[in-house]
Amino acid sequence: MALSPTPRSRLRRRVARGSHDRGVIDAILDEALVCHVGVVADGAPVVLPTAFVRIDDHLYVHGAVANAALGALCTDSGGCVTVTLLDGLVLARSAFHHSMNYRSVVLFGRGERVTDPGEQRTVLAGLVDRMAPGRSDACRPPTPEELRATLVVRFPIREGSAKVRTGGPIDDAEDYALDHWAGVVPVRLVRGEPQRDEATAPPVVTSGLVT
Amino acid sequence: MALSPTPRSRLRRRVARGSHDRGVIDAILDEALVCHVGVVADGAPVVLPTAFVRIDDHLYVHGAVANAALGALCTDSGGCVTVTLLDGLVLARSAFHHSMNYRSVVLFGRGERVTDPGEQRTVLAGLVDRMAPGRSDACRPPTPEELRATLVVRFPIREGSAKVRTGGPIDDAEDYALDHWAGVVPVRLVRGEPQRDEATAPPVVTSGLVT
User: What is the dihedral of CA B112, B117, B121, B123, to 10 degrees?
Assistant: First the structure.
């Protein structure tokens, strides 16, 4: 399955690196932990990082109910959600052909507030499960009050594209004779050893008395 | 030194996590390899990832001369440049208090095209040196033609703020009695072993004949 190109999502530059394929797009969305949400506020762009989860044909973000950027994402001007995975630094024989290996997705659209508590719960569980598989069953679930304090926004995976660069440097033919080192320095996001929080409940403070 | 807050860059939510301090901002900018540039195109936001380098009081990005987003960054509506480093996944006893440790910078402003070839060369060397120290002296420098094909944009570090979350989960007092595992899974971007490119010059193709 593929997304249909629109004037703003058709591939223009570096077409060979682009894709509208949902398999390519979903794999990137399902690996990344952070997206960058762009909205327009007072005519100027604002870009903020946030956690997200993909479920079927939507990507979901969340925040406090008063979150201005998420509110703006649900207005007519809509927004752009971009997800980027950095895979390598590409060192070419020429400065000009230095590059990066990456996989990115750029999606355009308008967000919608999720108002159904069941869908809210599914999304919030999905967000927690991205941090550790099964985590939503291994922590206290949200209370109705916590749900009311949370804005969950659904964003369609309908208009946009992926872009992927892989492989080594591509130099001009005459530069291959130069003896500069050339190649790729792979980079990746790794998870370290989990660090247990040993904190216990802070003492309850009542009228200046610690009890 | 600190950036002066403006209506859009003053700290509103999670004020304790925010900072206008240039030391905090610069340290984040100097560690990250990718920024997300937000501009407005036809009234709607567009967010694209790109490499960058900070030199003194500016952040620089570059692309092909026809790059539409970089062109838009230099118009009156300006843009937003956001840099995010993910440091950890914060698993709380409650789903609601799950969070992430991160360091981010959000800058607002208007870009300017760099037209001086000397400044262009300094910036392009700086971009290459971010991949590996001293790299700009260990590869072929840009030719005048390559400089003419490259758009370098200067973006001021003048209006914006940093936001930083560190440490373990902060649960509601009554939840500390729950026996769910809680803590932090650290994450970081690591560089792998450099992979040398063994390619030699591709054969020259002339009129269908490989010579």
Answer: -10
pLDDT in tens, B111-124: 999 999 999 999 99
B196–A182: do the CB atoms touch at under 8 Å? Answer: yes
Domain that holds residue A95: 15-165
Q: CA gyration radius for chain A?
A: 22
CATH number at residue B34: 2.30.110.10
Q: Which residue of A has its CA nearest to B133?
A: A91
pLDDT by residue (tens digit) across A17-43? 899 999 999 999 999 999 999 999 888
Tell me the C-alpha distance between A95 and B92, whole Å: 46
| Residue B204 token pair | 């020259």
Task: Please provide residue A9's backbone torsions phi and psi, each rounded to the nearest 5 degrees.
Answer: -110, 0
ipTM above 0.95, yes or no: no
Write out the two tokens for A185: 């320095």
CB B74 within 8 A of CB B113: yes
**Cross-chain CB nearest to B183 (options A41, A190, A196):** A196
| Cβ neighbours around A194 below 10 Å, total | 15
Question: In the prediction, which pLDDT does B9 show?
Answer: 86
Q: Is the pLDDT score of B19 beyond 60?
A: yes
Residue A178 is nearest to which of B91, B93, B140, comparing CB atoms? B140
Q: B48 lies in a domain? A: yes
Mean pLDDT calculated for residue range B4-14: 83
SS3 assignment, position A166: coil
* Residue A155 within a domain: yes
Residue A144 in domain: yes
The rounded distance, in Å, linking the Cα atoms of B110 and B114 is 13
Would you state the structure tokens that stand for residue B28, as one six-digit string? Answer: 């984040």
Q: How far is C-alpha A57 from the chain's CA centre?
A: 15
